[in-house]
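Tokens in:
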């Protein structure tokens, strides 16, 4: 019989009195005439004369049921010795014995900090006490084997490009939002220096700190308020950032991260889709402005100098080309072309290679056409003179600005608190099988301190990033991709190199990248960076079950995924749950993107209100069993 990727064979022998189990592992999936390729063969040999419930046929049937668990399959195929293979079977058996008819926590569901009664400083002390003994191994684990060294080096460069390009893109965006006050170089410096410090001290060094789309929204909000009220931007920015950091430190000391246990997939999915919407909005908004300026506003006066359809069309072509090339490269791993090794390299480095290819095409094909470049003269001069950071002066700030800064700092701290904890929870997901302590409270304290320093120096804020933290873990992992029936292929994590070295090297390289301004970074056209926004936004939808349930609305019912959880509840309940998420997302987007900074300042509250909404409202409109399946599936 064939059990997915392992072929199970059995044979009775009259010459033996004991059972023998033999496992053959193929170096790669091999075609043996079945519907799917086979990754290994297990042979069971047993005696002819034995009790009825211990015959070779019964034992083979039991082993076959155990091999239906794809985790057991993947661990068997990755076992390097008989002891590892035996342990994989024992672990699978223990898991089956623990399971009952209830829905268990699915692979990939985030591990949240265990709830303990908050004691002042107690949770923070526990994080330090549990994390400190493993600190030396956080560095040495990167050199424990050739595989570990290879993964660490490859992950360092992968993270470098995955962090540098969005940093430049957000630097361009922040510069346009703040009249050139926060530049590309400032964004790179903040992420490089802040991330370097975090990688050394953090409780969970797998978390990557970045300047994100919600932070960009809040920076624009502060700039607009400062302009409307004639308040010095830098002083206002510093005060808001300092109060934000103080609140984060208080959250850490009082152990408030334990209350994230009340969060759920319902909240995480809405926030993740909002990040996608924010990326797409930031990528579409400048295109709309260009079309408005060069085409639509020229209908009354076609002879106006700016009435030229060329610039917006070229801008759009470069954005779409970047998105298309990056996606094609990212999906090359699943194609039959070239060798698997090169497919993996192209797929892992899809973003930097896509940016490079489109940039080369721009100069090879569109050379006579001007495309915008980000302003670099100011950054280059500041880097040469060492004047990249500044200390704002508070003498010119009125007393009334302090309460406003306190209020905005509190709202900003809610955003940081939720985003940082969700990023850490996704990095600590149960499917990753991490062995070291997570350190949620220590990380919140460190993020608060880092952002206080960044605020004083006039640098953009940073906190845990949703996609990059999970990608960091995956890049350091040994992963097997499993496909079962009609279900989509999923990754099974065998082991993870839990080290600080990859994040440390990544952020050190980002600091070195300051020397690449203005040449060669300014050679990359601005539209390409907005294409990066589109790619990051759409890539974030992969694996998001909110998005997958949205697609169910237009999917043939006969082709619904074969997940047993979804088969146990009605389609009506599935669509009601999805509809509530849609309404929450629309309200979230309306508040965040409404052109009124005072309304926009409340968008962190919407994130926090999603938790009581899930706990208090949804149980009144959906059955308990349906909620348990949908919010855990």
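Residues out:
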């Amino acid at each position: 019989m064939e059990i997915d990727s392992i072929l199970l064979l059995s044979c009775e022998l009259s010459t033996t009195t004991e059972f023998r189990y033999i496992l053959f592992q193929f170096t790669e999936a091999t075609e043996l005439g079945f519907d799917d390729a086979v990754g290994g063969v297990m042979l069971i040999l047993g005696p002819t004369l034995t009790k009825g419930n211990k015959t070779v046929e019964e034992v083979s049937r039991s082993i076959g049921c155990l091999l239906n668990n794809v985790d057991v399959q993947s661990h068997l195929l990755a076992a390097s010795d008989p002891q590892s293979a035996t342990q994989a079977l024992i672990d699978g058996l223990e898991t089956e014995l623990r399971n009952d008819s209830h829905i268990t926590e699915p692979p990939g569901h985030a591990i949240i900090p265990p709830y303990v009664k908050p004691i002042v400083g107690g949770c923070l002390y526990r994080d330090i006490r549990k994390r400190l003994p493993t600190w030396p191994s956080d560095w040495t684990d990167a050199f424990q084997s050739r595989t570990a060294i290879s993964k660490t080096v490859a992950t360092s460069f992968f993270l470098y490009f995955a962090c540098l390009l969005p940093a430049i893109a957000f630097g361009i965006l922040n510069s346009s939002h703040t009249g050139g006050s926060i530049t590309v170089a400032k964004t790179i410096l903040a992420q490089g220096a802040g991330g370097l410090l975090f990688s050394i001290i953090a409780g969970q060094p797998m978390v990557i700190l970045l300047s994100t789309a919600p932070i960009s929204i809040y920076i624009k909000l502060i700039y607009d308020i400062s302009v409307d009220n004639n308040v010095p931007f830098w002083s206002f920015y510093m005060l808001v950032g300092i109060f934000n950091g103080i609140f984060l430190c208080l959250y850490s000391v009082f152990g408030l991260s334990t209350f994230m246990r009340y969060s759920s997939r319902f909240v995480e999915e809405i926030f993740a889709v909002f990040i996608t919407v924010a990326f797409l909005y930031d990528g579409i908004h400048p295109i709309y402005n260009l079309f408005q300026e060069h085409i639509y506003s020229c209908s009354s006066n076609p002879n106006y100098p700016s009435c030229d359809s060329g610039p917006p069309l070229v801008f759009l072509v470069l954005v779409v080309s970047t998105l298309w090339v990056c996606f094609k490269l990212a999906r090359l791993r699943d194609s039959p072309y070239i060798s698997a090794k090169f497919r993996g390299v192209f797929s892992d480095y899809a973003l930097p290679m896509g940016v490079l290819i489109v940039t080369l095409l721009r100069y090879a094909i569109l050379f006579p056409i001007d495309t915008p470049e980000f302003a670099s003269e100011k950054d280059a001069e500041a880097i040469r003179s060492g004047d990249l950071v500044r200390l704002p002066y508070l003498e010119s700030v009125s007393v009334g600005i302090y309460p406003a800064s306190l209020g905005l700092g509190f709202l900003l701290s809610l955003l940081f608190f939720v985003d940082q904890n969700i990023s850490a929870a996704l990095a600590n997901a149960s499917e990753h099988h991490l062995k070291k302590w997570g350190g949620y409270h220590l990380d919140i304290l460190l993020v608060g301190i880092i952002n206080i320093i960044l605020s004083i120096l006039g640098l953009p804020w940073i906190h845990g990033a949703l996609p990059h933290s999970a990608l960091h873990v995956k890049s350091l992992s040994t992963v097997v991709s499993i496909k079962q029936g009609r279900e989509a292929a999923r990754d099974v994590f065998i082991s993870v190199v839990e080290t600080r070295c990859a994040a440390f090297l990544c952020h050190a390289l980002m600091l070195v990248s300051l020397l690449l301004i203005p040449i060669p970074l300014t050679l990359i056209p601005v539209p390409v960076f907005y294409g990066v926004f589109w790619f990051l936004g759409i890539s974030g939808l992969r694996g998001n079950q909110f998005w997958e349930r949205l697609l169910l609305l237009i999917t043939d019912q006969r082709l619904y995924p074969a997940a047993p959880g979804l088969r146990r509840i009605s389609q009506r309940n599935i669509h009601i749950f999805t509809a509530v998420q849609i309404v929450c997302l629309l309200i979230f987007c309306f508040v965040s993107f409404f052109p009124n900074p005072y309304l926009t300042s409340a968008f962190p509250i919407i994130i926090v209100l999603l938790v009581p909404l899930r706990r208090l409202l949804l149980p009144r409109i959906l059955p308990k069993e349906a909620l348990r399946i949908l919010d855990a599936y």
